[in-house]
Specification:
heterodimer, A: mainly alpha, Arc Repressor Mutant, subunit A, 9 helices, about 0% strand, B: alpha+beta, 6-stranded antiparallel barrel, 8 strands, about 30% helix
Chain lengths: ~150, ~350
């Protein structure tokens, strides 16, 4: 949940967003067990969108993703295993449209199926496929370009 | 977020075009023989990416890859690229600190009210529970009381109406004897009405008898007490006004029929039996039509059936008392006055 909200652009408000999601869950009349997962992630997406529209600072996701880099560097200096950092990938992620980022987050962080993602976003399955394909193509291109540049 | 966001060209990858470009460059690098990025086997990177992401089944691609080493290599490379992107996206989001799951942290202050154990809220007294506990029993009591009150009222009304209802006289004309002013009534009452006094004076023999079984048109009577004159112990009378219920008591007034042909004297009657009658001899109006056979009282019973006395020309048939039954006795005029149930024979006295 935290990573999804982070990718929605709620970097410094992510903890508030997590709280708000839990409060909504506590107050809500829970759905049937078989539909709970889709309902839960829909609450996450909607909460992220609502808070994103209300956030006071207008920092973009790229800035937020960039700000997180020093923390990883500090961790590396402390002897922690280095994390695969990729500023270009962060830039590519930040450059994606929010709906594309949501699809990426739900696919890679929540491991939802394409049908579940379609229900969470409230769009047709074909639209989810198109968004995921487009996002992965862009990100893959960025990684490939980086490898080429490194070479 | 609306679909319009998807149309922003600066953010939206150029779909298949970008992928084809990327695939073309990749293909050019991987496949030196390929000129201009033309994919081997006609499967471009878009198609391989869609298959690697699980967006679509591609049996044609699977079949082609089975026989094409280069295609299989490209497909594996595409899958590796997808894994790299996934790792990169996961790495792009900074991991939380170790105390992130500690709910006592200040960051989770907003969740504290929901995490504290709460006593179940005291349920307000619901009107429904109050109804079941208090109102329903009271309502039931009211209904029961109303029903009992209605039944009681109906019973009282029934009693009062029954006391004023007419005492239906039997078809035989059985009614209680009218009581003369000052005269006792009831079981010990004497036939003290004026009519009764008149009858007692007008008839020669007055007995108290118990009605017996009815046989055809005749009914037996057993004489219990002789109040006036003398009488056989049993009498069999032909009823012309109905019969009495068996075992009921009655006063029988007997006298010789008036102007009975052939009734010369009481020689036909045993001495001592209906002795009063024996001495009577009427002439003129009276019962006519009686034939000659003289009634025989055998053992106290008139056994010989005589024709029914016919009324005289003037219509006089003898005194008719509405309260009595006229029992035709050949040549003997009999009036039967039924007594009320419960009357004791010993209590009957002549006025």
């Amino acid at each position: 949940m935290r990573r999804i909200l982070f990718l929605q652009g709620l970097c410094e408000e992510v903890d508030d967003a997590v709280q708000e999601v839990f409060i909504k869950v506590f107050r809500a009349k829970l759905p049937a067990e078989e539909t709970f997962l889709g309902w839960f992630y829909t609450v996450i997406l909607n909460t992220g969108r609502d808070l994103g529209r209300r956030r006071k600072t207008r920092k973009g996701l790229l800035e937020r993703l960039t700000e997180a880099a020093p923390a990883e560097q500090a961790a590396a200096a402390a002897g922690d295993p280095p994390r695969p950092t990729d500023p270009s990938l962060r830039s590519a992620l930040a450059a994606l449209a929010p709906d594309f980022r949501e699809v990426v987050a739900l696919r890679f962080f929540a491991d939802l199926s394409l049908e579940q993602i379609a229900r969470c976003q409230g769009v047709p399955l074909g639209t989810v496929k198109s968004r995921l394909h487009g996002a992965l193509a862009r990100l893959r291109t960025t990684l490939a370009t980086e490898e080429t540049d490194d070479d | 977020m609306t679909e319009n966001d998807d149309t922003r060209m600066n953010d939206r990858p150029a779909g298949g075009e970008a992928a084809r470009n990327a695939g073309a460059s990749g293909a050019a690098g991987d496949d030196p023989g390929a000129a201009g990025g033309s994919p081997s086997g006609g499967f471009d990177d878009d198609r391989l990416l869609a298959f690697a992401l699980g967006l679509a089944d591609d049996p044609e691609l699977v079949a082609a890859a089975a026989g094409d080493t280069e295609l299989r290599r490209r497909l594996e490379a595409m899958r590796a690229d997808v894994r790299a992107v996934s790792d990169g996206v996961n790495a792009a989001v900074p991991a939380p600190d170790d105390s992130y799951a500690d709910l006592s942290q200040e960051r989770w202050r907003g969740l504290a009210p929901y995490l504290r154990a709460r006593r179940p809220a005291r349920q307000p007294r619901r009107p429904r529970a109050f109804f079941h506990r208090a109102l329903a029993p009271a309502a039931a009591l009211l209904v029961v009381a109303a029903i009992l009150g209605g039944v009681f009222a109906l019973e009282n009304r029934g009693k009062s109406s029954s006391s004023t209802g007419t005492l239906a006289g039997k078809s035989t004309g059985h009614t209680a004897p009218e009581a003369a002013p000052g005269a006792p009534t009831g079981a010990a009452a004497t036939p003290s009405s004026v009519a009764t006094r008149h009858l007692a004076a007008a008839y020669d023999t007055v007995v108290v008898a118990r009605a017996g079984q009815v046989t055809g048109e005749q009914q037996h009577f057993t004489v219990l007490r002789t109040l006036k004159g003398s009488s056989p112990h049993t009498l069999r009378l032909r009823s012309e006004g109905g019969t009495l219920p068996p075992d009921s008591l009655a006063i029988l007034y007997l006298r010789p029929a008036v102007a009975t042909p052939g009734w010369a004297n009481s020689a036909g009657l045993p001495a001592g039996a209906l002795g009063v009658l024996g001495g009577s001899q009427a002439s003129g109006a009276g019962v006519v039509g009686a034939s000659s056979p003289t009634p025989q009282l055998t053992g106290g019973t008139l056994t010989q059936r005589m024709p029914t006395p016919q009324p005289a020309d003037d219509g006089y048939f003898g005194p008719i008392v509405s309260r009595a039954i006229a029992h035709a006795l050949p040549h003997i005029e009999v009036l039967v006055e039924p007594l009320p149930p419960g009357t004791k024979a010993d209590a009957i006295q002549l006025p």
